[in-house]
Amino acid sequence: MKILVVDDSETLRVQLKKDLEAGGYQVLEGFDGIHGLDLIKKNKDIRLIICDVNMPRMDGLTMCQKVHELPESKAIPILMMTTESSPEMKAHGKAAGVLAWITKPYVSEKLISVIGKIIK
Ligand SMILES: [Mg+2]
User: What does pTM read for this prediction?
Assistant: First the structure.
């Protein structure tokens, strides 16, 4: 099953890719919201998106909103992964269709378990 990871930190993408692949998932990497959106349009088999909030060009919440505006991608679950998790930010996320928040640094076993519950 294919997971899209969108984060401007290469270090985090490398780490996440390693952990997700160890969990049996295929991983696509996007470096900002615009790149992520492009990958979503080109890969119709993405089952889950893990997305950072703060990124250049297009932030994660804007990307999330756009993903849910597209009929072909609106059902893809999105997890936000960020150091920021203020109530205001979470309210924005909820409005944009964010399913869950994961705080950095994440715990690998926990993340894999959460993902397994979302996409069986
Ligand atoms: Mg960032």
Answer: 0.95
